[in-house]
Design brief:
Elements lengths: L3 H47 L7 H18 L1
């Protein structure tokens, strides 16, 4: 006889991890796109105020915000 339970146990978590990773990336992309306009605005205001463009750009700001917000959604 073949032991089918051992194969099923190893394959199921891999599928679950892939779907969780895909879901995380979808949420990340949505949040990134949503935070991008505000990040552009805050970056522009900071650049005007400090007269310097050496701070993080709008893409980096939006990426950071998405990295902070997305795990909060999955931990809730």
């Amino acid at each position: 006889m073949t032991d089918m339970t051992s194969n099923m146990a190893t394959e199921a978590p891999a599928r679950k991890r892939n779907s969780e990773k895909t879901e995380f990336m979808v949420y990340f992309a949505i949040i990134f796109v949503a935070t991008l306009p505000l990040a552009c605005l805050t970056w522009a205001l900071a650049a005007i105020k400090s007269r310097s463009f050496t701070d993080k750009g709008p893409m980096a700001r939006a990426w950071t915000q998405a990295r902070i917000i997305t795990p909060m959604i999955f931990n809730a």
